[in-house]
Amino acid sequence: MSEKMLSPLSGKIIKLNTESGASVKEGDEILLIESMKMETPIFAPCTGIVSSINVKEGDNLEDDDLIAIFE
Questions:
Q1: Measured between alpha carbons, how far is 2 from 45 in angstroms, rounded to an integer?
Q2: How many domains, the chain?
Q3: Rounded to whole angstroms, how far apart are CA atoms 41 and 27?
Q4: What CA–CA distance (Å, rounded) separates 62 from 70?
Q5: Mind listing the pLDDT tens digit for each residue in 2-31?
Q6: Tens digit of pLDDT for each residue in 35-68?
Q7: What is the CATH number of the domain that holds 51?
Q8: How far are the Cα atoms of 9, 36, 38, 56, 59 from residue 26, in angstroms, in the given order?
Q9: Residue 1: pLDDT band with limits 50, 70, 90
Q10: What mean pLDDT is reported for the chain?
Q11: What sign for the dihedral angle of Cα 40, 42, 59, 7?
Q12: What is the rounded distance in angstroms from the CA atom of residue 64 to the CA atom of residue 71?
């Protein structure tokens, strides 16, 4: 069963900490977003394998943009 990870806020991705095919645990930091001059870490919502990453460093995100899909 796959789980989609959506952006909880708008901002710019300043650091991506995972890649497709990586194993992650719930709570692992996936990426860092800069929003309103504050850096906010975004954490994995579940334990599993990252089946796709739909963003890259430097991308600008809006609320609810698709970040990744986990298996």
A1: 11
A2: 1
A3: 10
A4: 20
A5: 899 999 999 999 999 999 999 999 999 999
A6: 999 999 999 999 999 999 999 999 999 999 999 9
A7: 2.40.50.100
A8: 19, 26, 23, 21, 24
A9: confident
A10: 95
A11: negative
A12: 19
- Of the two residues 47 and 1, the one the predictor is more confident about is 47
Structural domain of residue 11, as residue ranges?
A: 3-70
Q: Which residue has the tokens 């991705």?
A: 13
Smallest CA-to-CA distance from 56 within 36, 30, 25, 27 is with 30
Q: Give the start-end residues of each E strand in the chain.
A: 3-6, 11-16, 23-24, 29-35, 38-43, 48-53, 60-61, 66-70
Q: Distance (Å, rounded) from C-alpha 13 to C-alpha 54?
A: 12
